[in-house]
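Long-time lurker, first post. I've been practising inverse folding by hand and with some scripts of my own, and I keep getting stuck on stretches where the structure tokens seem ambiguous. Below is the full token string for one chain I'm working on. Before anyone asks, I'm not after the true native sequence, just a reasonable design that respects the backbone. If someone could post their per-position residues I'd love to compare against what I wrote down in my notebook.
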């Protein structure tokens, strides 16, 4: 990635506390002197070697020396706009990754990440010298040629990079570190170019850093983008932080109180004060208005074991007053970017409120470095099960959002669609999980996703024929939003030529669904599904009606009739009520009309069934629309020996048809078999009592 000019003294307040920076002038001088003799490491990468050995004491630094020698000789003579030798850029990117704990292969590829793009080094040379893994990573971060793609070069570069990330997440780790160093050294560029790069960073790279859990890079990128795109708000926030620096900070006293509580409880823990970064302070100030002294930082409690996290939480909530609304358990329910911690807030006796984060040291490492902290996730663990193959290993770096992205990007018809869809996908900052009703697994979807999104996630282009869904067992429309933990059954039409309605685009939230729907509508301009503009009158077939069937009321000479709303049959539990004219109407006891009759004070009458077996029942059939459906249903009813007293067929709605039949049965015992026979009719997906 061709880095731009540097200004190492620009915005010193944005630098992360405790993080060393490369002295680019010193490195520039070291680079100009050329590589060191073979028996020692070049001075220019001593920072990298020191940071790497802090995480991997036994790491072989020989490969880093060879990578540096190749990078330095290849970039020799190239200068950044600041006047520094170009080699200072890959060195700075590599140091960022080394501090995060990246393993040797990542650092090797990082040193070489611009060689293929900006020098005469080829990918074949990289493979011969450093192997296939390094070659793949370097290729993944290499830009596509602008001469070939024109204005689409940037979107196509990101598409290529994301596809490579699907196979090796270390590609994106290097890209994020590369962008961070370029953002740090953006000061001498024209303001309009600074703004363009900052917007892409905000819309694409910061969300990717969040999803990969690399908070150390994400927070600094946020601050750098904030300073460029919102200079006035940035200056206001900087002034707030500067003013706070001259005031008494209540957090050290709270931290000492927490240390004392944990010592008395016998829980070994470290308690640190974590200053908020600029964007975090800005968000808090917008949320709360006037800031308290404790709003400029949080307490971080580090422990050894998961159980200790909950022990700390219990002590905090016992010895201080907890702010219940601030409690979140990301250990039991981790975020989709590997993040785990307990979040809470407590109030001290003197009224100070402090936010507290509790995590283990391993959780802290993952929270800061995300996937970088996993080392090489593709290496077979020495302690793994015997016979474990590459195909059997679980890849922790292939979360649901990345799988979804890789699926839909293939269908994006052009670079603009891919670019806009990518930004929309990354704008979703929360995920939900829904379960398939057939037991076929789960679907990961962005928050706010609807049944339409679930249909395309499960069925791909076959979802064009989706006509409805059941969510948690209840029939619902395709536009219905889904909640975390819902169970979804998607209903597909039998007609293969079915297609989506144009208004599906109003309810689709995932790029996969929107791209598929738009593609179908473009290819079928005259074949889009249309709903009925106005309901048509239902088709009704009415036969002779019986009255009371085999129900008998304990009221002499009173006429008896079965209620049409619930059509009871033996052996249903029933209740009778006297209505106008002295007749007794019989309902099933669970019918809503029973409660209504009782509330109106209607006289209740005991009802029992005659010994005769014939009865009347009303059934409702839900089906997909298709030719000859009514004929097939009536034939199935006839085969079971039932007589149709009346039938009503409602007009199709989104290719779904609702049938209502009142049937005279020779025996109530045939009802289950009759309902099964109706469900077996092709196109019928549900049959139930009215």
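-- Answer (accepted) --
I ran through it position by position. Result:
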């Amino acid at each position: 990635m061709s880095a731009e000019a540097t200004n190492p003294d620009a915005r010193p307040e944005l630098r992360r506390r405790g993080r060393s920076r490369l002295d680019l002038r010193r490195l520039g001088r070291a680079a100009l002197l050329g590589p060191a003799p073979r028996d020692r490491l070049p001075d220019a990468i001593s920072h990298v070697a020191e940071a790497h050995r802090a995480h991997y004491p036994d790491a072989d630094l020989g490969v880093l020396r060879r990578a540096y020698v190749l990078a330095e000789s290849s970039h020799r003579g190239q200068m950044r706009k600041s006047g520094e030798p170009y080699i200072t850029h890959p060195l700075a990117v590599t140091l960022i990754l080394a501090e995060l704990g990246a393993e040797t292969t990542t650092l090797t590829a990082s040193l070489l990440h611009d060689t293929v793009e900006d020098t005469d080094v080829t990918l074949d040379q990289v493979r011969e010298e450093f192997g296939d893994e390094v070659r793949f990573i370097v290729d993944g971060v290499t830009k596509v040629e602008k001469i070939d793609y024109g204005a689409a070069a940037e979107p196509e570069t990101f598409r290529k990079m994301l596809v490579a990330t699907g196979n090796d997440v270390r590609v994106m780790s290097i890209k994020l570190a590369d962008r961070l160093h370029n953002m740090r050294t953006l000061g001498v560029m024209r303001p309009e170019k600074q703004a363009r790069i900052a917007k892409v960073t905000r819309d694409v790279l910061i969300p990717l850093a969040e999803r990969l859990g690399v908070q150390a890079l994400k927070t600094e990128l946020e601050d750098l983008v904030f300073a460029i795109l919102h200079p006035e708000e940035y200056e206001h926030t900087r002034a707030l932080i500067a003013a706070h620096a001259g005031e008494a900070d209540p957090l050290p006293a709270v931290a000492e109180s927490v240390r004392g509580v944990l010592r008395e409880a016998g829980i070994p823990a470290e308690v640190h004060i974590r200053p908020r970064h600029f964007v975090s302070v800005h968000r808090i100030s917008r949320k709360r208005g006037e800031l308290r002294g404790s709003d400029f930082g949080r307490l971080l409690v580090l422990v050894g074991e998961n159980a200790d996290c909950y022990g700390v939480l219990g002590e905090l909530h016992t010895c201080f007053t907890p702010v219940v609304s601030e409690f979140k358990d990301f250990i039991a329910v981790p975020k989709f970017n590997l993040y785990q911690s307990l979040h809470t807030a407590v109030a001290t006796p003197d009224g100070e409120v402090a936010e507290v984060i509790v995590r283990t040291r391993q959780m802290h490492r993952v929270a800061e470095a995300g996937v970088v902290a996993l080392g090489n996730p593709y290496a077979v663990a020495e302690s793994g099960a015997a016979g474990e193959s590459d195909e059997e290993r679980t890849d922790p770096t292939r979360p649901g959002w990345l799988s979804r992205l890789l699926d839909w990007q293939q269908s994006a018809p052009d670079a603009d669609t891919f670019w806009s869809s990518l930004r929309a996908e990354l704008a979703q900052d929360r995920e939900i999980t829904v379960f398939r009703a057939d037991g076929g697994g789960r679907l990961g979807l962005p928050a706010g996703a609807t049944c339409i999104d679930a249909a395309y996630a499960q069925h791909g282009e076959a979802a064009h024929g989706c006509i409805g869904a059941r969510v948690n067992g209840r029939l619902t429309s395709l536009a219905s939003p889904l909640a975390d933990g819902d169970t979804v059954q998607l209903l597909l039409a039998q007609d293969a030529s079915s297609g989506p309605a144009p208004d599906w685009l109003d309810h689709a939230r995932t790029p996969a669904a929107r791209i598929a729907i738009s593609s179908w509508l473009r290819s079928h301009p005259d074949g889009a599904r249309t709903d009925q503009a106005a309901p048509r009158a239902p088709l009704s077939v009415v036969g002779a009606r019986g009255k009371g069937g085999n129900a008998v009321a304990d009221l002499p000479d009173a006429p008896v009739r079965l209620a049409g709303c619930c059509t009871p049959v033996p052996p249903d539990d029933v209740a009778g009520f006297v209505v106008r004219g002295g007749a007794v109407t019989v309902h099933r006891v669970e019918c809503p009309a029973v409660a209504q009759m009782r509330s109106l004070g209607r006289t209740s009458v005991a009802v029992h069934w005659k010994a005769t077996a014939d009865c009347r029942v009303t059934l409702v059939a839900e089906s997909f629309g298709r030719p000859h459906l009514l004929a097939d249903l009536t034939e199935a009813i006839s085969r079971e020996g039932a007589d149709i007293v009346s039938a009503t067929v409602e007009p199709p709605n989104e290719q779904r048809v609702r049938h209502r039949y009142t049937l005279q049965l020779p025996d109530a015992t045939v009802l289950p078999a009759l309902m099964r026979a109706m469900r077996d009719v092709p196109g019928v997906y549900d049959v139930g009592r009215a």
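A couple of notes from the structure itself: The mean pLDDT is 81. The first strand starts at residue 270 and ends at 275. Happy to go over any region you disagree with.
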